[in-house]
């Protein structure tokens, strides 16, 4: 099939899936978003879901990225090692159907702290290929597992993952703090004070228990507990990331993803004295898949 006639790009995550129809001019002309993430499907379900997507968006080539290439997805793809650029990613696409349906591999870091990613590499490559990074070399991708990605020489040279979002979700749903953390984390004085505390070296695990202690001693309500916990966790995440990259002190940090999550990280970075810029995650993904398609 001819990729120049248009294609479908799918960002296929653990719980959600978003498919984009790209036309001959490289523009997104239609999209489908649903809850059919890889954990909702058996391995035998993927061919029919892909066929239904083509029926909805067009019988064109398809490029897939994210957890669809994991050991819980359709077909497991091998990780490629850092440094990784658009050419090495394109060369390592796993073809389910030759030149028609391919899965982008993830990226692995084997030296130093072992780490892996699936999906964020496409957004990182897209942010660089589109010119949206400007002078930034450090990308922060907030989420369940936040990624801090160093970009140099046209590709990903190193990265690390923090389980910040997952820890917040566990605290909110399954911890002793769950009754106090029923609200939504928002930027404000509570969030920023907590972020500053972590940035200054406070111990988040001890500070978090203070949420319960204040409630029991009637020294604070639960309406701000989610913001306090989020500020402590994100502040600690930002502190660790900046401490490990002292060479990136002057350049802005690119925040790639959803605007609500990125806004909280931008606030924490501001408290750390750092500037940031926002890049929409969907637009970065589309720019990344476009760069990949050019190399196929």
UniProtKB/TrEMBL annotation:
InterPro entries, A to Z: DGOK (IPR007729), DGOK_C (IPR042257), DGOK_N (IPR042258)
Superkingdom in the source lineage: Bacteria
Annotated signal peptide: none
Coiled-coil zones: none
Protein name according to UniProt: 2-dehydro-3-deoxygalactonokinase
């Amino acid at each position: 099939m001819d990729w120049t006639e248009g294609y479908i790009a799918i960002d296929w995550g653990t719980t959600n899936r978003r498919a984009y129809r790209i036309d001959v001019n490289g523009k997104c002309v239609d999209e489908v978003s649903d809850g059919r993430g890889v954990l909702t499907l058996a391995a035998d379900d993927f061919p029919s879901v892909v066929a239904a997507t083509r029926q909805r968006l067009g019988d064109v080539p398809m490029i897939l990225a994210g957890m669809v290439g994991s050991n819980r997805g359709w077909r497991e793809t091998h990780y490629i090692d850092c440094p990784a650029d658009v050419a090495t990613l394109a060369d390592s696409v796993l073809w389910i159907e030759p030149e028609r349906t391919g899965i982008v591999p993830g990226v692995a870091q084997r030296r130093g702290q072992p780490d892996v990613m699936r999906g964020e590499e496409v957004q990182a490559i897209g942010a660089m290929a589109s010119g949206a990074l400007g002078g930034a070399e450090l990308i922060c991708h907030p989420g369940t597992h936040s990624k801090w990605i160093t970009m140099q020489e046209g590709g990903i040279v190193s990265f690390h993952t923090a389980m910040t979002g997952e820890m917040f979700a566990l605290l909110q749903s399954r911890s002793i703090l769950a009754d106090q953390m029923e609200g939504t984390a928002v930027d404000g004085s509570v969030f920023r004070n907590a972020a500053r505390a972590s940035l200054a070296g406070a111990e988040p695990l001890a500070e978090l228990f203070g949420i319960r202690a204040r409630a029991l001693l009637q020294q604070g309500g639960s309406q701000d507990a989610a913001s306090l916990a989020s500020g402590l966790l994100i502040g600690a995440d930002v502190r660790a990331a900046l401490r490990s990259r002292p060479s990136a002190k002057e350049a802005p940090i690119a925040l790639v993803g959803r605007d609500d999550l990125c806004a909280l990280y931008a606030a924490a970075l501001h408290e750390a004295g750092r500037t940031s810029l926002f890049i929409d995650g969907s637009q970065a993904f589309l720019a990344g898949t476009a760069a990949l398609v050019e190399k196929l």
